[in-house]
Write a structure and sequence with these properties.
The complex is a heterodimer of chains A (111) and B (120).
Chain A lengths: L8 E4 L5 E6 L11 E6 L6 E4 L13 E6 L2 E6 L8 E8 L6 E3 L3 E5 L1
Parallel strand pairs in A: 1-9
Antiparallel strand pairs in A: 2-6, 3-4, 3-7, 5-6, 7-8, 7-9
Chain B lengths: L2 E5 L3 E3 L4 E8 L9 E7 L6 E7 L4 E3 L7 E6 L4 E6 L8 E8 L6 E4 L3 E6 L1
Parallel strand pairs in B: 2-11
Antiparallel strand pairs in B: 1-3, 3-8, 4-5, 4-9, 5-6, 7-8, 9-10, 9-11
Classes of the chains: A mainly beta (111), B mainly beta (120).
Chain lengths: 111, 120
C-alpha cells in the first residue's frame, strides 16, 4: 500500500485560507468514507481534526473543514491563525489486511 | 479527559527487543468499543500503523511486521504494550500510542510519542 500524496508545504497569511489535498487510489480514499486528518505540532500529541471525511470532533473549530471527491480528499483551514502552523497528515481506511494508510504530510506555515 | 503516555527505553541495540508501554489515564482500557493502537514515524517518512489490540484480546498487526510484533493489554495496570523483536536500524522511529474509536480508523486520542533509536 503506497502512501497517500500530499503537497510538502502550504502557506497563508493570518485570516486567509489554505487547502491541502490528499490523493490516493480507488482502493483507499475512492472506496471509503473513512478519511481522517491529523495535526502534528513538534513534541506534542497528534490531534484528530477531521474524521469520516468531513466530521469535526468536539472542540475542533469550524475553521477546519474536510471534503472528498473521487480519490482525493481535501482539508481546508479558513481564517488562518498562528497556532495552525503545524504538520498535517491525512489517513484513509483501505479495507485490506494493512488497513490504514497515511499521507506524506504537509507543513503549513502562517506567514 | 483521557490521556495516553508512552514509556520505554530510548535506545535499543540491533537484534534485541524493543518494548514500549502506553499508560492510559482518565479512562479505562477495558471500555468496550475501542482499539488500543501503535503507530510509528521514521525521520522524513509518513506515519505508519503498526497494530492494535481490543479489550477482547484480539489483535491486528501490520503484515510486514507481523512475525516480530506482539501487542498486549494489561487491564490491571490500565496500559497496553508493544514488543518488537529482532530490531534493526529501520525500526528507529518516534513511536505513538493511540485510541481507536472505530474499526475503520478514527484515532481520537494520541500520546505525544517516544523516540526509539536502534544502535549497532
Amino acid at each position: 500500500q503506497s502512501a497517500l500524496t500530499q503537497p510538502p508545504s502550504a502557506s497563508g497569511s493570518p485570516g486567509q485560507s489554505v487547502a491541502i489535498s490528499c490523493t490516493g487510489t480507488s482502493s483507499d480514499i475512492g472506496s471509503y468514507k473513512y478519511v481522517s486528518w491529523y495535526q502534528l505540532h513538534p513534541g506534542k500529541a497528534p490531534k484528530l481534526i477531521i474524521y469520516e471525511v468531513s466530521k469535526r470532533p468536539s472542540g475542533v473549530p469550524d475553521r477546519f473543514s474536510g471534503s472528498k471527491s473521487g480519490n482525493t480528499a481535501s482539508l481546508t483551514v479558513s481564517g488562518l491563525q498562528a497556532e495552525d502552523e503545524a504538520d498535517y497528515y491525512c489517513s484513509s481506511y483501505t479495507g485490506s489486511n494493512n488497513p490504514f494508510v497515511f499521507g506524506t504530510g504537509t507543513k503549513v506555515t502562517v506567514l | 479527559q483521557v490521556q495516553l503516555q508512552e514509556s520505554g527505553p530510548g535506545l535499543v541495540k540491533a537484534s534485541q527487543t524493543l518494548s514500549l508501554t502506553c499508560s492510559v489515564s482518565g479512562g479505562s482500557v477495558s471500555s468496550a468499543g475501542y482499539s488500543w493502537t501503535w503507530f510509528r514515524q521514521s525521520a522524513g517518512k509518513e506515519l505508519e500503523w503498526i497494530g492494535r489490540v481490543y479489550v477482547s484480546g484480539s489483535t491486528d498487526y501490520r503484515p510486514s511486521l507481523k512475525s516480530r510484533i506482539t501487542i498486549s493489554l494489561d487491564t490491571s495496570k490500565n496500559q497496553f504494550s508493544l514488543r518488537l523483536t529482532s530490531v534493526t536500524a529501520a525500526d528507529t522511529a518516534v513511536y505513538y500510542c493511540a485510541r481507536g474509536v472505530s474499526a475503520e480508523g478514527t484515532f481520537d486520542i494520541w500520546g505525544q510519542g517516544t523516540m526509539v533509536t536502534v544502535s549497532s
